[in-house]
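The methods section describes the discrete structure representation at length, but only in general terms. What matters is that the chain and its backbone geometry are given together, residue for residue. Nothing conveys this as quickly as seeing an actual entry. For illustration, here is how one protein appears when written out as sequence plus structure tokens:
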Amino acid sequence: MSDIVKRLLVVDDEPDFADFVKRTAEGVGYEVTALSDPNLFKEAYRATDPDVVVLDMVMPDIEGIELVQWLAEQECEARILVVTGYNPYYGKMALGLGEVRGLKVETHQKPISLATLREALS
């Protein structure tokens, strides 16, 4: 068994979804910080230095694409899983930005199944 702790940061304004990601990630060995307030994301990112970031794209105050842009400015090396329950175009925007800025971005449409989330985290 590996002693390396994998860290995950999730931000989603839907607390139930953030909790679903948290429980699933903990079940596959991650140490998780879950936020439902996107205004706390930047501070939490700096504090946790995550290996994986799970971002909702449509949130109040701060859009997920703004956070993807900020992650690019931080030269983020974490995998970024973008999730959205809205138009898939939001995910395509994040993929395009990630490609241009050298980020490891993948997208998933809500609702996301437990099996799909587990696979994405492995």
User: Anything to note?
Assistant: The chain has one domain: 6-121. The first helix runs from residue 15 to 27. The domain at 6-121 is CATH 3.40.50.2300 (Rossmann fold).
